[in-house]
Amino acid sequence: MAYADILELHRRQPRRVNPAPLPRAGEGSERVAVTPMTGAASLLAYLGAAPLLAGALTMISNPASGVDRFLVLYGAALLIFFGGVRWGVAVMKPKGPTMRALLGAVLPMLAALPLLVAGEPTANIMIVMGLMILLLVDDLRATRRGDGAPLWYLGVRIPLTVLIEVALLVALAAGMRG
Questions:
Q1: Can you name the residues that pair with 33 across neighbouring β-strands?
Q2: Does residue 79 have a pLDDT over 90?
Q3: Residue 51 lies in a domain
Q4: What mean pLDDT is predicted for residues 12-34?
Q5: How far apart are CA 130 and CA 136, in angstroms?
Q6: pLDDT tens by residue, 99-128
C-alpha cells in the first residue's frame, strides 16, 4: 500500500465531533460527521461476496456439485479476513492495541482453522453463519464503545453480512432439497 493510499484512507475516516463512545439506545445522541466510503472500497467489499453468491446459485442448479465444501472454505477465509480487519483497527489506535483488541483479532482465525479441515459441509456452513453473526454483533458493540472500526465500515459490513448470510442460507436450503 502506497503512502498516498494511507493518506486517502485517513482522510476518508469519519471524524467524531465528540470523541465519547456512541450512546446506548435511549440515551443522548452524539453528532458524527460520516464521510462516505470510497467507491473502490465499497466495490471490493461486495466483490468479496460474489463467490458465495455464485456458489449458492450453483447449489440451486446442482446440489450434488460439491460446491458446499468451497462455501465452507471461502466462509472460513472471510472469517480470517474479518479478523485481519479487527487487527488493522486495533493497531491503528493512537495509544496502540490493547490485549483485548488483539485477542479479538486472533479469535476469528482460531475459530476458522477447524473449518479448513474436512468435515460435514452442512454443519460447517451453519458454524460459519453463526460466527459471522457473532463477529458482527461484537463489532457493533466495539463501535458503540468507541473501540471499533470507522462508521463507514459498519455501513458496508452490516448489509454485506446479511448478503453473506442469505447466500449461505440459500446454499443450505438447496443442499437439503437436493
A1: 15
A2: yes
A3: no
A4: 47
A5: 10
A6: 988 999 999 999 999 999 978 999 999 999
CB 114 within 8 A of CB 108: no
> In 3-state terms, what secondary structure has residue 33?
strand
Nearest CA to 156 out of 43, 15, 17, 24 is that of 43
Whole-angstrom distance, CA of residue 115 vs CA of residue 46:
23
| pLDDT, tens digit, 9 for 90 and up, residues 50-65 | 999 999 999 999 988 8
In a domain, 55, yes or no: no
Distance CA 21, CA 30 (A): 9
173 to 12, 60, 71: CA distances (angstroms): 40, 8, 13
Sequence-distant (6+) residues with CB within 8 A of 53 are 163, 167
| Count of domains for the chain | 1
Instruction: Please report whether residue 134 resides in a domain.
Output: yes
The continuous run of DSSP H or E covering 85 comes out as helix 67-91
Whether the predicted model's global pTM rises above the 0.90 cut? no
Domain region containing 173: 67-178
